[in-house]
Design brief:
Glucose Permease (Domain IIA); single chain; 3% helix
Length: 314
């Protein structure tokens, strides 16, 4: 984005890339200081220059960490992300040598938010940024001792790159607002995001889920998840559940409790956690049980709609 840029469609701000020039020097899950987190380090057109960056949405200062030029921001209202999700944005910017933000301060979309810098023992001038697609302000350490948000997303799923010159994008699926159409109806120019599932809705799984049990034999590549299906562990263990409550392992990746990908990817019943970033189409719904039927890798599976969220058809 450029200084003063705004993007509002049907009353909802699009979450814009805060940088005019984006050169990612360390991407998500980097081997140095980003291990297990969804953060990017971004410098500008020329190395060593403390370029300004701008508010990706109208946001409020929630916390400050002056020793590292670090500020936690949160959108004043729900915003539209590049993956089509509409929710609050909670994000961190770090290393601003001239940081002067105050808790409670509100910055309008397109106004200057800060400057790239080196404060906090940074290697080279840059802005460290990471985004949670939620109102959760938890700031916690992972297994590698690195701080992060809950509900973090890769940044190519977060901000639109309208008017951003991508110098080094680390192969991300970067999208502009033209790539994500607004398809919902509106009332008084306010977008309706009902999140009520219908046959044909495109959805993603929302959360990290425990692998309660693996189906025998292991070659079946199916697992049971009490949270997703409502079936008890005992029902799974005694094979009293319906076939459609066993879930294929193929589309899920193993993570720790904080959502960070594990190295071995070998699932263990009762110990492993998984997530799934794929998009599925709702084949059927059952309003009585608040469940939706998805076809996962060729297998029909019923899961609670609570753990699904609608995304754009694009």
């Amino acid at each position: 984005m450029i200084k003063g840029q705004k993007s509002v469609r049907n009353g909802i701000e699009d979450f814009l890339c805060p940088f005019t020039d984006m050169y990612i020097s360390q991407g998500s899950n980097g081997s140095y200081s980003h291990k297990g987190i969804m953060a990017n380090d971004v410098r500008g057109l020329q190395a060593g220059v403390r370029y300004p960056y701008y508010a990706p949405c109208t946001c409020k200062c929630i916390r400050t960490y002056p020793s590292s030029g670090q500020v936690m921001w949160q959108s004043v209202n729900k915003v539209r992300f590049a993956n089509g999700r509409v929710d609050y944005a909670t994000f961190m910017t770090v290393h601003d040598n001239s940081m002067d933000a105050k808790v409670g301060q509100v910055v309008e979309q397109g106004s200057q938010l800060g400057n790239m810098g080196t404060k906090g023992n940074a290697t080279g001038v840059h802005c460290h940024i990471e985004v949670s697609q939620s109102a959760d302000t938890s700031w916690i350490k992972n297994q590698y001792g690195i701080y992060h948000f809950n509900n973090e997303y890769d940044l190519d799923d977060c901000y639109f790159v309208d008017n951003t010159n991508i110098l080094k994008g680390m192969g991300g699926n970067w999208r502009t607002t033209k790539d994500v159409a607004v398809q919902e109806t509106s009332i008084n120019n306010i977008e309706i995001v009902d999140q009520i599932l219908h046959v044909g809705s495109k959805v993603k799984f929302d959360g990290i889920f425990k692998v309660d049990i693996l189906k025998s034999p292991l070659s079946s590549n199916l697992f049971g998840c009490c949270q997703l299906t409502g079936c008890s562990y005992n029902s799974y263990k005694t094979e009293q559940v319906k076939s459609h409550h066993w879930i294929p392992t193929s589309d899920f990746i193993e993570v720790d409790k904080n959502g960070h990908v594990t190295s071995d990817q070998v699932l263990s019943g009762g110990n492993s956690y998984v997530l799934n970033k794929n998009v599925y189409e709702v084949k059927d719904i059952d309003t009585k049980t608040n469940s939706a039927k998805l076809n996962i890798n060729g297998r029909d599976v019923w899961v609670f709609s609570t753990f699904l969220y609608e995304v754009s058809n694009n």
